[in-house]
Specification:
With 276 residues, the protein is α/β, with parallel strands linked by helices. 35% of the residues lie in helices and 15% in strands. It has helices spanning 2-13, 56-65, 139-156, 166-169, 183-187, 197-204, 215-225, 237-250, 261-274; strands at residues 23-25, 30-32, 46-51, 72-74, 80-81, 84-85, 88-89, 104-105, 108-109, 115-120, 125-128, 131-134, 163-165. The strands form 5 sheets. A 5-stranded mixed sheet has the order 7-4-10-3-13. A two-stranded antiparallel ribbon has the order 1-2. Helix 6 packs across helix 9. It is globular, with a radius of gyration of 24 Å. It starts with a helix and ends with a helix. The structure holds zinc ion. Zinc ion binds next to loops.
């Protein structure tokens, strides 16, 4: 006890008001971490999901030695560790991975700055005689991506409308993770946004689901929800591509990019729920 009192007295005399635990020597100076500000938040705001269009081996090769990267990679059949599915972490979460490219969502662009990216091994699509044929995901990799996403969302407090497809934030360039990604099932596990059925019915207002509608209302709703889309009022090629990206995420039963009553109702319901 005597020794401790003597030690404290020496500290006080030396003008040292912090314990040695909070002082960290750096390169020619030291920092004191005693006083932490309340005003701060996570840099990560978005979760972006992708598919690789390559097999396991080439996905890993491309994402570790090429010019693109992602924080996590989910193999077709993820390996296991004590019965837990394993995701490969290719970039630490605190650093930027290069997965989003030129991108925009709501008021933000260059989503690499504010996102975590997950790449899922999947071949994408092939052009068939009646349109694109999409490759399914495996149950094992979806289980892994679900658990990983849920954990990231919880740790960073990512809002549902900020869990996005690469095609949502770069609709003119990208189609991943495609219409076979189970967004609705994921939303039922608290991962990502989904409209309330009652609100969709309200906006559908008795119209047939595939009844064609004007482009203007949907353009406006998608801009309000977060998509980068010009308000032209007509179905030009760029508009159609953004509509298609939206349908791949929220209405996979029809992804032609033609605006219809159901697509419009879903968009309005999402705005009402997440961007009031
Ligand atoms: Zn992508």
């Amino acid at each position: 006890m005597k020794t401790l009192i003597l030690f404290l007295a020496i500290l006080t005399m030396a003008g040292c008001t912090t314990g040695p635990k909070n002082l960290i020597a750096k390169n020619g100076y030291a920092i004191d971490t005693t006083h932490e500000s309340q005003s701060q938040n996570e840099r990560v705001r978005h979760l972006v999901l992708h598919y690789t269009v390559l097999d396991d081996h080439h996905s890993l090769q491309a994402l570790t030695s090429g010019t693109a990267s992602a924080h996590y990679l989910a193999f077709t059949t993820p390996p296991t560790h004590h019965e837990l599915p394993v995701a490969l972490q290719l970039v630490p979460e605190g650093r930027r991975a290069w997965h989003a490219g030129v991108s925009q969502w709501a008021s933000r662009n260059n989503l690499n700055d504010t996102s975590i990216g997950i790449e899922i091994v999947n071949a994408g699509f092939i052009e068939g005689p009646t349109g694109r044929l999409w490759f399914p995901y495996t149950e094992a990799q979806l289980t892994l991506v679900k658990r990983l996403s849920a954990d990231l969302i919880k740790r960073y407090g990512i809002e549902p409308q900020n869990v996005v497809a690469h095609s949502d934030i770069a609709p003119l360039r990208k189609s991943d993770p495609g219409p076979l990604f189970p967004w609705q099932a994921f939303s039922e596990h608290g991962i990502g946004a989904w409209p309330d059925a009652v609100t969709v019915q309200k906006h559908l207002a008795q119209r047939p689901e595939f009844q064609r509608v004007e482009a203007g209302t949907l353009q406006k709703a998608l801009a309000a929800y977060g998509y980068k889309i010009a308000q032209t009022g007509v179905l030009d090629e760029e508009t159609r591509q953004v509509f298609r990206a939206f349908q791949m995420h929220f209405r996979p039963a029809g992804i032609s990019g033609i605006p219809d009553a159901q697509t419009e109702a879903i968009a309005l319901a999402l705005v009402e729920k997440y961007r009031p």
